[in-house]
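User: quick one
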Amino acid sequence: MNRLSVEHRQILLLVGVEGLSYREIALELGIPTGTVMSRLARARERLRALLEEGH
Amino acid sequence: MRQHVTEPDLHAYIDGELSPERAAAVEAAMARDPALAERVRAFQADRQALIDTYRRLVHAPVPAALLKAASTTPPRHRTRIIGLAFAGAAALAACLVLVLAPRAPRDPAIEQAMTARDNARIPSHELKGHDLASVDAAAKAMSDMLGNPMQVPDLSRAGFTLVSTDIYGSKAVQLRYEDARQRLFTVFLRPSAGPDAFEVTERGPVRICVWQNADLTAVMTGAMSTPELFRLASMTYSSLGL
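Assistant: Done. Structure below.
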């Protein structure tokens, strides 16, 4: 996780661990729901790539 | 007719955020494409691993020996207390590195913030009551600590008023806010404890948000929901004048 950007770590924790909905995150971050979705997709791609690098 | 499935659709499917129609479209696409189905399963596994790891770490107990050491610290020697607090936090961090590796880097700052929140750490100077008529004194203490101009966040829009500022020498500042229901929101600021970071964690009923950049570590706490804490934390961080 430490190798992810703050932005990516933030979105992964808020969605996955805190269980906030996309709409709640969009409201809190002041960004469109579509941006939450695209940012989350990039964050998970990056996490997946890092995990594969580690194997 | 086949519907186009995007990458964000896949993740919204994993998070249960899709309408039944779009979810059905994703499932149909996965049925047609085994590689796509495997990717979705991998993302689901990553998501679950993240949840398992962080929830386990959040609820993991602090080692008993460290708790005992903290509770038997003599209360008379303030400077020594602060030194021990930092040393204890460092020792705790060392243990946590072994046991709780993913969370370790920010834990010393969290320990310091929680100790300050519980008033177990005695400030070298405290501003409250009429002292706060001018927030300049608090801002000056914060600015001196970091060597950069900073401002005391105004959280009145969220219903929180600054009730005291605790200054811990040149090492840290704690801002204590309360709302009309006397709920406490604290902002613990210290020079940066590491690289850029954002974390949300919890200690019993208290939610903790750590926001860290190259200059500053901000640990914000409150016995409130995550969305409310996050709203206050965002308002605080954007108002510090960094």
